[in-house]
User: What shape does this take?
Amino acid sequence: MIKRILIANRGEIAHRIIKACRELNITSIAIYSEADKNALHVRRADEAYLIGNSPANESYLNKEKIIELAKKVNADAIHPGYGFLSENSEFIEMVENSGINFIGPSSKSVKLMGGKTDARDLMMKNNVPIVPGTTEPIYTIEEGKKIAKEIGYPIMLKAVAGGGGKGMRKIYNDDEFETAFQLASSESKKAFGNSSVYIEKYIENPKHIEVQILADKHGNYIHLFERECSVQRRHQKVIEEAPSISIDESIRERITQTSIQAAKACNYFNAGTIEFLLDKNKNFYFLEMNTRLQVEHPVTEMITGFDIVKEQIKIAEGNKLSIKQDDLKINGHAIECRVYAEDIDNNFSPSIGKITLHRLTSGPGIRIDRGIDISSDVPIYYDPMLAKVIAWGRTREESIERMKRALSEYQICGVTTNMPVFKWILNQDEFLDGSFDINFLEQKLMPLIPNKWRENLPEELENVITVVTALLKNEKKYFNSSSNSKEVKNKWRDLLYE
Ligand code: ADP
Assistant: This one.
């Protein structure tokens, strides 16, 4: 029996896991960094312990410290949430060896699905269709060009260790190859410490469809239907919904069965997601497997009435799945909007500061999973997602109407958020009629945002500006009484641009 769970995460997902613990009468144990001393998850957990300094590698990514603390406070399980160490097979192996229960898959399954080329190879051998391309890294430009010719342009170079949309480059012809290869490799090296890249055919205007699966440690597998996550910016999901508006019953049957096949291929247990691209001819191709809980799991919970986090804990305890495939039905429609502290006018750079007003909304069909409260800090060190607004309705139309209402009521002050973007998306014909694809935001929204820096300023410089501005905020001498952080940021941007 699991009685005490250490949650190796922060923000909304830590808060979400605390709720599951409470319902199961399990003690929740939070960890936090210096920057998160006043964070909501710290206040809501039954116990909370300082783990280290603010940078993630000194706190939420510090494997040894987390396991040491878990032992010290007698935690009998660790829930990793998503991000941070959730898909780090080395960490999972360390947890396994410590005798503490890991609430997630085995380190072996995570390792099998961790490298994109290895995962593609495994899927191919198990009759799961993959995006055409290589199942080995590309080592030279000549080799890459040869393969690109065979597959046919356009192609994509992708990081073997990829994640978060990083290390990807689209290439239309031989002339673009060399520069793209160098950029993708160096971005990958920087982000993942591994410069290996491989080739995939670029699928034109696809949809991103993914399937939630659950499996126990006794070899039982079920799926919880699909989610559509085609509204993306920089290959990162912005809005997700379930079920998908783009597939019919026959594709649903095939894509869910294929997902179970994929999960079985790596002897998977616990919650996982198989991601696919769906092309214009409704062919689907395996993209990757996320061997953890997804950010967007609530939309699946809303249409099935099933608590995925509680089931994760029960699976980790060694219980059989508590539900059979035939007992699961799709009920209505759910949409999720990821609310980020982002400054839309400044290339969506993180908007850091203190939350000075947080007026929640509720009402029929609305759920908000949040990591903030009034007076919460939004630190520079972590992903600036503040909350997820989820709307359920009997039909897609009703869930959209409810989402619009909820967004018009939900108020956050102190930082700027991306909420205006949702209001725009939810009124677009392409979104309403379902004709949108993964390029919808880049093609339709981005040109509307006047931002002379967008094309020119690399992401790294944006991050530097944000950090410098944050530091200066505490150094009053750099401000005169009338200046605000936006002005200072713009001055820095001007300087850097020159
Ligand atoms: P990551 O692991 O970095 O998130 P994924 O492989 O999951 O990368 O892809 C993220 C997104 O990038 C997809 O949802 C899709 O929008 C785009 N993408 C990835 N591969 C392709 C491809 N071969 N063709 C077209 N778009 C792609």
